[in-house]
Amino acid sequence: MKLSYKWLSEYLELNIAPKDLAEKIERTAVEVDSVRRLDDKLKKIVVGHTLEVVDHPDSDHLHIVQVEVGEEEPIQIVCGAPNIAADQDVIVALHGSRIKDNVKIKRSKMRGVPSNGMICALQEIGFDDSVVPKEFVDGIYVFPADSEVKPGDSVMEALGMDDDIIDTSVTPNRGDMFSMNGNVHEIAAILDQKATFEERKVEETGNSANAEISVDVVNPEFAPVYKMRVVNEVKVTSSPFWLQVKLMKAGVRPINNVVDVTNYIMLKYGQPLHAFDQTTLGTDISVDAAGPNVTFTTLDGVERKLRPDDLVIKSSDTPIALAGVMGGMDSEISNQTTDVVLEAAIFDPIMIRKTARYHVLHSEAAMRFERGIDYSSLQTALDEASEMIREIAGGFVMSDTVIGNDTKINLTEVNVKLSRINKILGTNLERSEVEHIFDRLGFESVFSNDQFTITIPLRRWDIAIEADILEEVARIYGYDNLPSTLPSSGSTVGRLSANQRLMRETRNVLEGLGLTQAMSYGLTTLEKAQRFTQAESDKLVKVDWPMTKDHEALRMSLISGLLDDVAYNQARSVSNVALYEQGRIFEKTTDDVQPMETEHLAGVIAGSLMSKAWNTKNQDVDFYQVKGIVDQYLHNLGLTGNITYRANHDLNSLHPGRTADVLVNDEVIGFIGQVHPELAKQLKISETYVFELDFTKIMELPKNIQHYDAVSKYPVITRDVAMLVDNDISNQSILDVMNSTKQKYLVDIKLFDVYAGNHLPSGKRSMAYQLTYQDQNETLQESVVNNEFDELQMALQTQLNATIR
């Protein structure tokens, strides 16, 4: 919020420099973005009165203007503004002056005509385009008649630019500081002063407003408080000059005297108000959800399709305002308005937040409703706004307030012990010191038996528990005044946990195998989130309010993010990509709890793992290389279980004939496979292989702490066996049979040949294995090996109907 130092001075005795005040606010309350002097580096800019305006003889848009600037003689200025005219009070930058961005104005000739200065727009002396009155956006600024300026007066003083603006960044918990009221009370506490905050009383005349309109709040939770007042026979014109200046310095564009009053009250009390034209409003007002298939044109001229849950103000079931966010075109205040209905309310902050975010309408009103409104100041703000409109725009305020809902809330009481305060803050504060802090904050307190009972005013709705009180005492007492002590604790040996060590070992192994670590974003599209997973679609975790369409859901697999990296690299002529990622995937459990987070490990390889060289041919990665990487990784972990692989034809987004589950002790912990060619074509990537493992399960599996196998000094004996088997018999089935024969000295099995085709029976293939036998303790005898080998062949013949060749 932009705080005017001069406006604050109306309520406080500010015997402190603006920058020092800002430093105290930042140290004690909220962050300060900047402190800016409005007339900084501006020089020799005065009020001028135009005496004569004639067209430039050599231009179709320039004018020659005679301007009185408080000197003995008028000066001549050539001006191109479309709204220049005689008998106007304008902004004049004299010869040698400095305007915005430190631009120096000099005497010059414009198409042969001397010009001794410049007639300025507000933007040219530092005002932002968004706060300039609309009638002066594209031209020079003309002082209104009630400004009472004279030629030669300082423009900086006339426009209140001899002021400092403290721009604060209000945190969500301190919505009270979105108002002058809240800031005045906060600064009064910081400076140990009493605020003299002025409130105006309303002067009522005429009949009861309840005879004019009625209000129905359909659900009390939509609007805990909803009130209206009626002001009749007003004349809508420009606001008084002082009000326009105040609003522009606060970052608000002046509109007209009615709307400007509502904005002024919003800045003063933090209570957003909305003004309706009673002629177009109707008599039956309701506050309700929009319902299905409703369109509505807001004040910015945009037709919007409303969500069914958007909160709206209705007149005879027709939307007239987007509650708490923006009004509608049909009921806006115009120069023809004579009767005004003022609305003051407290709306459900969550509904306002959702509406503002969905429609991208983060208005000043919406920001305040989202953070909370002071229940105690609503009626005061509504009454004062009505009285100001009566004074500024004429007319009269009808008696009584129209009430749709008026929820009363109790004051919050918090108990805290004095000893507790001193213990937590490390201080030795006396009772009187703490009571004085509460008094500065405007909190009522009662002390008994070492305990304070503090009553919190409604304007501080952020305070509810003991910790809040402790924080209030600490910040008003001064963080710099708290004693500094070193923490006391016993020394501990720093080391990694077992899971942390496993994570580091994982990185070392995979990077040693040629992969590079990558990190992907956890949010992705709905389509990508469900790829490479067999989880049901109802497990998908969707984001209620995604930043973009690319971030609508939490990932259920790590592979989609890695494939995006592959596509990115290959689009830039990097064909060989080998990446891995260790991160979390998310699955919904039930609607009322947080999603389940599971650590996963994934890898993706495209192209070749080995760069082409003079002695190395380029060989693209295949299924068995990726399987070897996974197998080596699991072996290095020292898992005690039996690691096997099983074909999987049903995993979406993967090639049905080149995909396998990874199992440990018959429990699936992941998969390996080739990205489906259709998906690869869609992503514009080459043939790519992936793997993904459930890292949480891997961390829980039993492991050998020491899994080193001593190298035997005794020789090995090898035997080769070739067999004819049916095509549907897999390599894993053959290995299972070989291992099931409980071979005592069989230490290794390798498949070295597979053949199917000519000279073999239909539906058959030949598979040849090399078997390695070794005894760790002595030289192995030929007869022992022959016995085991014969037993193995017999098992293959009987269990698989294999023909030994």
Automatic annotation (TrEMBL):
What Gene Ontology molecular function terms does this protein carry?
ATP binding; catalytic activity, acting on a protein; magnesium ion binding; phenylalanine-tRNA ligase activity; transferase activity; tRNA binding
Q: What is this protein called?
A: Phenylalanine--tRNA ligase beta subunit
Pfam families cross-referenced by the UniProt entry: B3_4, B5, FDX-ACB, tRNA_bind, tRNA_synthFbeta
Q: Which SMART domains match?
A: B3_4 (SM00873), B5 (SM00874), FDX-ACB (SM00896)
Report domain TRNA-binding positions: 39-156
Q: Which residues form the B5 domain?
A: 409-484
Cofactor binding, per record? Binds 2 magnesium ions per tetramer.
State the family it belongs to. Belongs to the phenylalanyl-tRNA synthetase beta subunit family. Type 1 subfamily.
